[in-house]
């Protein structure tokens, strides 16, 4: 018996700042992908803060405007600059970021991989999904609402135009965005420049507005107007929604381009625009839509068009992020294998998921038609994001203690202030629950339930399978002593249980009563790392001349292409020829049991998820002409 491991060159690992693209191009790309969401917040964040503060009279407008501006400035500084840029971006999982990457990193730091960390990760991922249905709706709606300022007669068409844009956006997902993605960065860069210039014009007219840099004004506002502090903080938080994208997209660009883009372009332009809106409101205290109203007459329609383009790009980034997150959840066995279609021959991250796309589209359209304005929809925005941020802080604390080896005192000195800020924003957004905040909560709870159902069902199914199977070594010994007739060729039997005899092998022997000359027991595993180290990709073990075992381990960010990986095993002595190889899989038909581990209705949901999952043939990229599926009925 022999075993060997092989280094496999994985073409899917993305290039970062150290790659061939160069820092300027990566910074430009980060503008279009990472900062699209937070970059469109000026369309509605300051406006909603004014609405939350009421309609102040001219006599006290100055202090109130400075107070609101100060809160926004320091929210951006504390949440984005200090929390994400200074700390969270350093907690990468081999270059990857996001809730599930942070969850995997935190779990790996414990010997027993505690369940509570996985639970936090599942909740965080579910909250992101809740956020993903709101961002396209509120972003595009807020941009199109600029028509109300440019041409008030078009106000009744805002919802219709928004729905048409959303339909077009989701329709083109199937074709991929590779061809147009190259212009996302330049358009977003133009958007940020427009934000900065339009704000600077009004700052020059009212330079006193810069006094809002002093946190005194924000603190004073909260104390003097304590009765409206909660709704105001809920509105102020809209200015930092999208901050989590810095961490989610860490693997696409690397830390340095994201940080450079923030300090060189994004942060300065956001501040200039918010200060500009504040300066405009000081001069025009009854402004309804300060962002569009402060534009020169000739610039309003171009700004509406540019804002619409920027919000579409921001929405595209969120949709792609949702695809990526759900694919990670699939690879980590948190969700069934939904159909994944690759839309690019060169970029493995360019994917399209038809089922998820349709579900997101329906949810976004329902939100737009139900709420009908970005102001109403802003009440639904925030709870999911603040919840996800709180989970990020909790997992970051684990990383600080277990991986960075920080002392308890040092970790608490950093985490406690961050947790207080996030908790304050979370409480402020919870207050909006009855006015629409329940929407992302319901979506997130539904996602949590589906993940819990899938994981519980898989555990029950695995336990039942193990009870019916016999140990692989026992079967090999029996077949070696009493060898059945053999036929030419190689048979590959897929199994998720590394130690058990594949169900497909047992049924093949039962029905055909023959073995192939070479029989390979193949298991495909998913690592808790985004990309598996090359020297751990392939494990080959020879039992007898008749039987061998191959274990392929993919990272949760990789596409599991089994034939491509098997070719690598040639270097280990296994003469793999795809044209003389047959892949044997077991396809289970699940029947709910009257008495089982889950309630009957939950069994039905698990079965529905399993029936709608992509087949193993498609998921593992197996050649359909070389696959034999054996049907098996299982009661759970």
From TrEMBL:
Localization terms from the record: Cell membrane; Membrane
Protein name, UniProt field: Probable potassium transport system protein Kup
PANTHER family: LOW AFFINITY POTASSIUM TRANSPORT SYSTEM PROTEIN KUP, OSMOTIC STRESS POTASSIUM TRANSPORTER
Lineage: Bacteria, Pseudomonadati, Pseudomonadota, Alphaproteobacteria, Hyphomicrobiales
Topology in membrane: Multi-pass membrane protein
The protein's role, per its UniProt record: Transport of potassium into the cell. Likely operates as a K(+):H(+) symporter.
Source domain of life: Bacteria
Matching InterPro entries: K+_transporter, K_trans_C, K_trans_N, Kup
K+ potassium transporter C-terminal domain: residues covered: 488-636
Alphabetic keyword roster: Cell inner membrane, Cell membrane, Ion transport, Membrane, Potassium, Potassium transport, Symport, Transmembrane, Transmembrane helix, Transport
rRNA processing listed as a keyword: no
